What does this fold into?
Amino acid sequence: MNKTDELVGAVEGVTAVPLGPPVRRFRPRFGIALALTAGAAAVLLLSATPWPHHPAVQAWRTVSLAITVQALPFLLLGTALSGAINAFVPADLFTRVLPKRPVLAVPVAGAAGAVLPGCECASVPVAGSLIRRGVTPAAAFAFLLSAPAINPVVLTATAVAFPGDPAMVAARLLASLATAAVMGWLWLWLGKEEWLRPLLRRRNTGHRHGHSRWTEFRLGFQHDFLHAGGFLVLGAMAAATFNVTVPRSVLDAFSGSPWLSVLFLAALAVLLAVCSEADAFVAASLTGFSPTARLAFLVVGPMVDLKLIALQAGTFGRAFAWRFSTATTVVAVAASVLIGGALL
It folds into this structure.
């Protein structure tokens, strides 16, 4: 049963059985329980309790809240777009617009990522909605990877952070597009649908005639936001833990080796979980590292970080998230080295 049918069916169940809602509607869901837990943790972080006032704990709280607040508007945007796609867009629109052959649909979907001016938190729910509407998962994943890295806002921020260095902007654009396309083609070759949550294996859900589109939009938005919000907060907490516990001297120890610096900044991008609209300024501040290493930071970060892995696990399933994030990291680092070596 797909998401829209399930939610609308739950509403129908309440109408048909006045004595009480169906049990299925209120069956505990891991995502909702996680969101409630994360919400409680957020309240604790915001509270003025006297425990403990150690600077490290205060710094951890500040970084956790900063990452969450920075990403929350884009998560809201993404879940709103996902709900709108599900409720208002004809079911066959995307399958008619994209090329029929999946191998061609992948690069087209990757290039279409330029039209979503948001970060990775917005692209995850939108990609999930595209899959439910019949778009081949390979194309949806190419869009998911490219949207936070090549949209005009991110490229403009990169140009501002690296003034007088248009090659960095071009290298980021090309390496990100190449990574998105390669990952889409790899999914066509090696991907298995059983890695995805059962909810995403049903196609062409769309609007059900006789039901309010606004009701479907509201229920879909509520489901996606509650499910993804908890994973976002957990990812932010994990990134804050790294920020607080790893000293600056560790960064300096890796800057001297060309190969280690690339791998280190790629790993750092995963752990820091900086929004793609701000990561260029972080990369520009890492002046002790080579341009290729900083390019790896810019390419890997919008595609694989702790909060994004958590969001993917909540949306697509944990079996998918770990496989996909690992492969994406390898491909993104390879693309950065090849394109960075040629252009930077």
About this structure: The CA atoms of residues 57 and 244 lie 8 Å apart.
